[in-house]
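Sample intake sheet
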Amino acid sequence: LSEAVRPRVQALVTCGMWPSVGAAVMEIPAGGGRLLRSLETLDRLASRWPAPGKRPVEPLVDSLLPHVRAALTEGFTALDRDITSHALEGNDSTVFQPLRPPTLLYCDGVVTLWRFVNDALDAPLSLGVPVDIVVQPFLEFVGEVLQRTQRRLLRPCEQHAPFKIVPRVAQAVAELAKNEYDVDSDDDAGLSGNEGEATRRKKGKKSKFWRLNSSIKSQAEEVAMKNMIIDADLLEVDHRVTAPPIQEVSVRLSSLGFCLAELDGIYNKLFKAVNSGDDSDVPTLRHNDARRQICVELPELQDFMRERCGHSLAKYLAQRLVFFELRQDLFERLYFTPESAVAGADRPGSTAATPLAGGTETVGMSFLVDSGPASSSCLSLEAMLARWQDGLLSIVARTPTALLVPFVVELGTQLANAWTFVVLDYLRRAKLDRAASLLDDDLEALKRMLAALMQEARRHVTAKAQTPGGPGSVRPSLIGLSVGDCDEGSKRLEEVLKVAQALVLKVHTGTAEELARFAGRVCGEFGAAGGETPAVGSSDVMGQQDRGWSVENGSKSPREPEVAKKGGIKIGGIRVGGGSTRGRSASP
């Protein structure tokens, strides 16, 4: 039967009834899908009961396969050219509007885009074309659509270190975490010989450091009404980076989450169709290739959208919130006490009942709002976080589930790193003064804030954490959020907090001069705009440290740590407390 049908199938092409490759109009003729399915069934029968004494011959479907794939490719290309390539065209402020806030924050254009993508898959399947033939040209079409969508949802200026201060902060905090520094002892009297010579060299270096530090301090004191960190020039940002409002960025992030959900749906649809159309007794090479493409190439497209696009945009949003939207509070007002207020203030944090200027002007989204005026002449981190907590939690609640933990970890990491950097900067300039008494409460407030962010993420944990990944295997779902994902994020935030805790303990164990030398060694080795360093919080930086507390249990840190040994205690790579019988060099 198979041999009797073969000449008739070949005649369809030679007589032009089935458009061949290179024809003016490439399409699958009416009834062509049903014919392909019937030929595939006949091929299976011929493979199951082959003619005795004859070698296996080419399957009947293969006679039409090049022409079918060419027709499908032509159809997908025309659809992309005429419709899907225009789905997200237009002005950003017009295109990226939430579809139905506050529940549906993705834009209407991305919904239209994926409606046509799904229709492109359903059309040949509804005509009866075997799914194993459709998979390859369809995945090529989806790849083109995703490349264009990625360029539309993630701007080039948001991808590579858009904030110059971030690498500098990351370098300083990473240096603080990986190096063991002792607070220097000034008690060098009584040393003689080689020890005395070493001490004199140290003091010579120390004097050079203090001359440099004095010069830096004189420049910083030019601005009397706000704090001016030494690296203030790195806080300047290209206007193009922060031009879109926060609402637009949030809509783009939600649209990426919608893309990931649609990709997951296409994966499940194709995987189910291939398995249902295959015959386990007589499997075909085309079905195996189609299954491999679904299980390998489609996840690669999903990872491309999630890692390169989704994580990059979540990282940009987190960094923007910390280093631009909260820039004034963190880098200009935190712990700063105007000279006129110093004499009349009994303690840092005394109330002045004056609102913080610019509380909401720099914020571009309605749900990121200042929840109250500043009530102290010396703004503490605890007060700052109390004012901004509701807005930050609101942004977390609106983040797509697939990108939730990466966003929370990046936001918590950058917030902790920025605070650590500000404290180091005050120590370098010997200007922390009475604000040092606020650090313990601020550390606890930071722990509570990071715990609240992760707790908000845990509210979105889904039951669907895995999807089929092949015969007898599963793979993690791109749209599900598991408890394990949240636990891993909590561990990374704990590692970040350990460095901040170690710095607070050190502040309580050294004099202003000792702490200035310490902060100078940590921060003074780097150029102003060095290369990007992975933020503290990765497992390779702090993974070997013992954890004495959890980011979500809010345990108290000691205000006056006991030093049981002469050498002090070591936390987060920093040795805290204890006397030093041999002085350390004041320069790195």
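Comment: The radius of gyration is 32 Å. The longest strand covers residues 466-470.
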